[in-house]
Design a protein that fits this description.
single chain; mainly beta; five-stranded antiparallel beta sheet; 1 helix; globular
Length: 341
């Protein structure tokens, strides 16, 4: 595999997996080779972006629908696409128009992660596309957490649902740099995101409605150039910005995907948030109290410095954790099960 980005389970035995280079495949939890899924990706832009986030519809068992967030050429943007998988699982076709277009596509910071919430809405995290004013501009879809109805409209309870600018209606919160992780905490109403800092302060944040997370990479109000020598969460410029629940400090570890281990078989790990680390080539666990404060952190020794860069962890229907590596060559899907002891 070459830079897999997302894994999504379609039933108790099978999953779909995206590769950023533009491949979609079907796999089985029992192992074995992947089966290519034929899909029209001729308009896919490549580079630091490509075929990224993916999520299955809650009613997939009956409608066979799944969604991807992918880069597009002419015009250059990221967009959320709706697909229907064939009954055989060997092909997929696009369904209708894209749900959402205009997610900015730049040379860097163009990640896009998708997640269905228990509210039945599609949530998307977007990078700031290396544009100085994007994260603080609520009419720009970069550097945001977005919330979208399944039909592509903006939910009526979004914080700016009646804004004159249509794009602003999709914004749930803003002021992010390059969030690549989205996860719901089981048994709660808490959504979390993980994002890359510059050379300091990778962050894990509790996702709150209508709030500013304080990233503003510009020198001053009149200079739009991208300038990173600013705090990841600037509480001086934005006193009401939301402080991170966890921050890496220096050095950074480059967190990408995020999920929560879930199930009593995980023992002391049950309920722990786990982050896939790119730069630090491993996995970090965060133990949270009920309100969401981090009370303990620890690396996961079985995964650290063993498989290279890790991109995405997802809980499977069999109670195991599935992890995508992101090394660019000979990438793998790992299955991690709780110890029998």
């Amino acid at each position: 595999m070459d830079t897999p980005w997302e894994i999504a389970f379609i039933d108790a035995t099978r999953y779909l997996v995206t590769e950023r280079t533009g491949r979609l495949s079907l796999g089985r939890l029992s192992g074995g080779p992947l089966t290519p899924v034929k899909a029209d990706l001729t308009d896919l832009a490549s580079g630091d972006s490509g075929l990224m986030g993916m999520v299955t519809d809650p009613a997939f068992a009956t409608n066979r629908i799944f969604y991807t967030c992918q880069s597009h050429v002419a015009p250059n943007d990221n967009r959320i696409i709706r697909w229907r998988l064939s009954a055989t699982g060997t092909s997929a076709v696009r369904v209708g128009a894209p749900l959402l277009t205009g997610l900015p596509l730049g040379k860097f910071h163009t990640s896009c992660r998708l997640l269905f919430g228990p509210d039945g809405k599609i949530w998307a995290s977007t990078g700031d596309s290396y544009r100085g004013r994007a994260a603080q501009d609520k009419t720009n879809l970069g550097g945001k957490i977005l919330r979208v109805n399944k039909n592509g409209s903006a939910p009526s309870d979004n914080p700016w649902a009646t804004a004159a600018n249509i794009r602003q209606r999709y914004v749930w919160n803003y002021g992010h740099r390059n969030p690549q992780g989205l996860a719901w905490r089981p048994g709660t109403k808490q959504m979390w995101n993980a994002e890359h800092g510059p050379d300091w302060d990778d962050e894990v944040n509790l996702v709150l409605k209508g709030r500013n997370y304080g990233w503003n990479p510009v020198k001053n109000a009149t200079d739009p150039a991208y300038y990173q020598n600013v705090p990841m969460t600037d509480l001086v410029e934005f006193p009401d910005a939301v402080p991170a629940k966890w921050s890496s400090g220096v050095p950074t570890v480059a967190p990408s995907g995020m999920t929560f281990l879930n199930g009593t078989s995980w023992g002391a790990y049950n309920g722990v948030a786990v982050l896939a680390l790119l730069k630090d080539e491993g996995m970090l666990g965060l133990w949270l109290d009920k309100p969401g404060n981090v009370v303990k952190t620890a690396g996961i020794p079985e995964l650290n410095d063993t498989y290279g860069r890790l991109r995405t962890p997802r809980m499977g229907p069999d109670g195991a954790l599935y992890v995508l590596t992101s090394n660019g060559t000979d990438d793998k899907i790992l299955r991690v099960a709780p110890s029998a002891s």
